[in-house]
């Protein structure tokens, strides 16, 4: 097609992602991860992630070009995550992107990582309709976005006031003695448990639509409630079902996420919901979203999990949309923004 060939670079956390996209066609997507190095610390160490990005960057670019069968001089534009994320890791990606832009004399587009999590769905399920709602949930973010145009008009309706959904799962995983990251382990246990066994608090639900935090999330109170519930049983030497705790906790998170998201869709007359971010792998969220979207007549779009976790395709997809929308390129003097707003 006549669409520009966009090279996307993602380094906001522990994944070095490089992908090539033309229009909404993904040519290749290469990812290198330093998660194995972080797992033993129980969290991401920014310095370790930065060094891993530095080492993986050129090989990952070369692998993406090689697998896609294109040469560097065919690239029409470079898109890179400028934020939000970890400053050191972001700097490695932005530096690489600037160098390419200068060397190739091609435009540079610094883009927003969170919007990228929504944009990647266009590579899988096609161009977005007029208006979509996007729920971006991961270890780092829980945001509800109203997307009128993924390239130029995205409004954040709400986000987490404290922990992200994945982060809450990881913290509960730690207190239940599960390995890091705890999210997938809780998911697995929860599938064997009774979600109605314990009624954990939902938090921020009773607000009216007009209320300030109508579409914001808060998971730290829920996490504390789980900790207290478990401690009380342990102190009393009482046995309890780990599966029931996991299922009841996961149910509370999925309930709040889906209830608020669907309320926002109805309030804004949106009938397409995109879910992205690594936490969209969560079974309880997937099941509840599928059920409640079907009831509400909302089309649910969730990309395959490899496009939900951090990757280069999401940045190339957003870059492609931005270039096609005719947005002006970024200045070559751009910095990074760890808490970049939309
Ligand atoms: O997007 P992602 O890969 O990394 C960033 O947050 O940047 O998301 C990973 C997060 C972790 O907190 C992980 O525990 C959580 O998503 N997660 C899950 C599941 N798979 C990943 N949480 C619950 N259930 C899962 N199946
Ligand atoms: Zn992410």
From TrEMBL:
Print the keywords alphabetically. Acyltransferase, Cytoplasm, Iron, Metal-binding, Transferase, tRNA processing
Q: Where does substrate bind?
A: 136-140, 170, 183, 187, 282
Q: Which CDD domains match?
A: ASKHA_NBD_TsaD_bac
List each copy of the Gcp-like domain by range: 27-316
Q: Which cofactor does it need?
A: Fe(2+)
**EC number(s)?**
2.3.1.234
Q: Which InterPro entries match?
A: ATPase_NBD, Gcp-like_dom, KAE1/TsaD, Peptidase_M22_CS, TsaD
User: Which processes are annotated in GO (biological process)?
Assistant: tRNA threonylcarbamoyladenosine modification
Query: What family is this?
Result: Belongs to the KAE1 / TsaD family.
Q: What is this protein called?
A: tRNA N6-adenosine threonylcarbamoyltransferase
